[in-house]
Every structure is written in structure tokens, then in C-alpha cells.
């Protein structure tokens, strides 16, 4: 029997990304390395414009790096087809953004179960999963409400539930409570941390809030296009 441990859910190896502008190439990331272990919650704290969103987009396979490699569960994603990358995003990665991006014409339950349906689950299974997740975020009785009928905190709870619908191994979040008031932000963030820890998910969470960052397992920042300990 092999004693080799499983590969980490996410590993960025020397990833670089630049953008073409009228003034020429703009390097954002030059050689960024980052590994997330299962069950680890990492805070990404860096000033605006230093590449936080770019790093998250690369980690989530929304963009391809100009150099380096992104490994998801040990699988190098750089040479995969767009369809294969989409399948990995759907099955392995959950996303939470500052703004919930819920579909306004659908109920809270439908917003969550649609993610499960897209992964090929039967509707009965998707519905049961959606109800379980919404209940875990204290949204019993709110399943049939549309986003416009929910408070900001409730909307973000639905968005987090949607991100967890397909039982991802990785959660990427960009200022997930940045649009909420302080009290609601603290409460929703606590629920997010509990949900991630209870499921053993590897999480990378970008935040400007040092008190929220301090509640995570470690904090990293970006300096000269690289990931460094904060």
C-alpha cells in the first residue's frame, strides 16, 4: 500500500499574468506560488490593484496564466480544453462574490438547486440539497422568497449555499461580506467559516477587513506579483 498523501486541492506554481494596455504590457502577477490544503482557510489581504481578483480568477480557472501552472486536486489545468476546465469549476470549485449575483426571477431554493441541476443531479436530489443548505444558514421559511424579498445578509447566505451546492473541494471568495453592515458581516462570515470548516473545504478568501482575516488559518498578501506571508 502507498503511504503517499493525496495532492492538495489547489496549488498555484509560478503563475504569471499580464494585461495589454495602451501604454504597453501591465504585469500583475509575475511568479505567484500558493498551496491550499484540505480544510485550510487562507485570507488574501492586499491593496486594490495588486492582483487579488486576478489571482482568484486564475485559481478558479476563469483565466489562463501567461506562465506557470494551476493544479486542481493534482491535475494540471493549463492545457485542458475549455470544456474540461468548465467541468472542474462546476464540480470542484465554489465561488462567492461581494455582490450575490442571484438570479432575481428565481426563489432562494431555485437559485441553489440550479447549480446542482447543472451538475447533472436529479431534481429531487438537487431540491433536497438546496433545502438542507438553506436550513444550515438559518433560512427555513425563506426558500420560496425571491432575492428582492430577502435582506442583504439573507441574499449572501443564499449565495454561499449556492457555492456549496455541488460539495466543492475549493471555495474562492472575493470580499464575500464587503457589501454588508458590520454586524451582519460578522454574523454571515462566522456562518461561512463554520460551513467551510465542517466540510473540510480549502478556502481562499480575499478581504480588506483585518479582523476577519485574523479569524482564518493564515494570511497572505501580494508583493511585486508574488504571494508572500502577510
UniProtKB/TrEMBL annotation:
State the family named in the UniProt similarity comment for this chain. Belongs to the ABC transporter superfamily.
Tell me where on the tree of life, at the top rank, the source sits: Bacteria
GO-annotated molecular function: ATP binding
Question: Know the name of this protein?
Answer: ABC transporter ATP-binding protein
Report the Gene3D superfamilies cross-referenced here.
Answer: P-loop containing nucleotide triphosphate hydrolases (3.40.50.300)
Tell me any Pfam family this protein matches.
ABC_tran
Source taxonomy: Bacteria, Pseudomonadati, Pseudomonadota, Alphaproteobacteria, Acetobacterales
InterPro entries referenced in this protein's UniProt entry, alphabetically: AAA+_ATPase, ABC_transporter-like_ATP-bd, ABC_transporter-like_CS, ABC_transpr_LolD-like, MacB-like_ATP-bd, P-loop_NTPase
Listed A to Z, the keywords are:
ATP-binding, Nucleotide-binding, Transport
Under PROSITE patterns, the record lists: ABC_TRANSPORTER_1, ABC_TRANSPORTER_2
SMART domains named among the record's database cross-references: AAA
Q: Which organism is it from?
A: Craurococcus roseus
**Coiled-coil positions:** none
Boundaries of every ABC transporter domain copy: 10-230
